[in-house]
Write a structure and sequence with these properties.
Layout lengths: L1 H26 L4 E6 L6 H17 L6 E6 L4 H13 L3 E6 L3 H14 L3 E3 L12 E2 L5 H14 L4 E6 L3 H16 L3 E7 L3 H12 L7 E4 L4 H13 L6 E5 L6 H6 L8 E4 L7 H11 L5 H18 L5 H10 L2 E4 L2 E4 L7 E2 L2 E6 L2 E4 L1
Parallel strand pairs: 1-2, 1-3, 3-4, 4-5, 6-7, 6-8, 8-9, 9-10
Antiparallel strand pairs: 10-14, 11-12, 12-13, 14-15
Length: about 375
């Protein structure tokens, strides 16, 4: 009995030492990507799309040993501030991805600079002022629509109209598109100030109705359901054959767009990504999430992969991620190549696609 106690007394300290050495590392939380988006409220559908995409890419990159946690802004200013505060106060939060919406994105950029945490924004409003802790892989709306206008003029559509409402998004889209057309030698004849598709079609018909044998472009940055109505009114007013309709990237939600392709024959739209470019990725995403892949998800995935790439290459602190952001000038993502040669703003090339014969074809 005494011999057994002696053996036990020798083993217990070793066992205790082993357990004390192993438990801290086992329970130590992994660094995480904090996703600050609306997960409830009016804009929750957008936030859930981003959340799914970040989780998908973090798991898809097997070398990326980072957890993902969401922080709900609820689409409201005060709640966005709370979400940002909770994320930055989390000691395991290595980087933030989010900032949907102009105001939230601006607030997030300011917050990351003050708090000293790397942040990859998903909004498209304006350039970042002297970016240090913040970056945005996606092009700004100005850059995206200017590029679209340049490409449309480059394909020979040199004369036409823009149809836009008064809200900030449509105003910026039309102004930038016109800038691109003009820079490529084209001409925007006029702007049709309208928000309702019927009104836009009527104004266009009144403008071009008496001018025969002339074809124009008409840029209309409408959502899908408005674009379908716009097409219908153009046909009803017998001017559809006289114009080539150009849309923006908000149209490329593949399943929805393809379901209405027969109603949008000949539509040209610009985007940095389309399902037709990488059907295998689209199929993988659908199997993993049960949802379709569109541009917002691609931007979220690419932002995640940028973080994963930095982390696996040794940038495993906030300061190291910041340094990696500052020094990197090129990145290959799902949406193609992103470039930042002067270390100010990232750009990616917009592509043109055409709806034809119930399919989407790259041009």
């Amino acid at each position: 009995m005494m011999a057994s106690n002696i053996r036990l007394n020798r083993i217990l300290p070793l066992f205790t030492l082993f357990v004390s050495a192993c438990i801290p590392s086992a329970l130590q939380a992994k660094p995480k990507i904090c996703v600050v988006v609306p997960l409830s409220g009016q804009y929750s559908a957008l936030g859930q799309r981003v959340m799914r995409a970040v989780k998908f890419q973090a798991q898809r990159d097997r070398a990326c040993d980072l957890d993902v946690q969401g922080f709900d802004t609820k689409g409201l200013g005060d709640d966005a501030t709370i979400a940002l505060s909770n994320a930055t106060n989390d000691p395991d939060c290595l980087v933030i991805i989010g900032g949907i919406g102009d105001q939230t994105g601006s607030n997030m950029a300011t917050w990351s600079e003050v708090s000293g945490i790397p942040c990859l924004l998903l909004n498209g409003k304006g350039p970042l002022q002297k970016p240090v802790w913040t970056m945005r892989l996606r092009p700004t709306r100005e850059a995206l629509f200017t590029d679209l206008g340049t490409q449309v003029a480059g394909m020979g559509l040199l004369s036409g109209f823009v149809a836009c409402g008064a809200d900030n998004f449509q105003d910026e889209a039309c102004t930038s598109f016109a800038k691109g057309v003009t820079s490529a030698g084209g001409n925007v004849i006029g702007r049709l100030d309208c928000t309702d598709p019927k009104t836009c079609a009527a104004k266009l018909a009144a403008t071009i109705g008496k001018k025969s044998h002339v074809h124009y472009f008409v840029f209309a940055p409408f959502k899908l359901y408005k674009m379908v109505r716009f097409y219908a009114y153009l046909s009803y007013m017998q001017i559809k054959s006289r114009v080539v309709v150009v849309g923006g990237p908000m149209l490329d939600v593949p399943a929805l767009l393809l379901s209405r392709a027969a109603d949008l024959e000949g539509l040209i739209f610009g985007d940095v990504f389309s399902a037709v470019l990488n059907p295998e990725l689209v199929a993988q995403y659908r199997r993993f999430t049960g949802h379709d892949l569109s541009t917002l998800e691609v931007w979220a995935m690419d932002s995640t992969e940028f973080v994963c790439q930095a982390y696996t290459q040794g940038a495993q602190t906030k300061a190291a991620i910041r340094s990696y952001m500052e020094q990197t000038s090129a990145f290959q993502g799902m949406g193609g190549e992103y470039l930042n040669p002067d270390h100010t703003q990232w750009r990616s090339t917009i592509r043109l696609f055409k709806v034809t014969h119930d399919t989407i074809q790259p041009m």
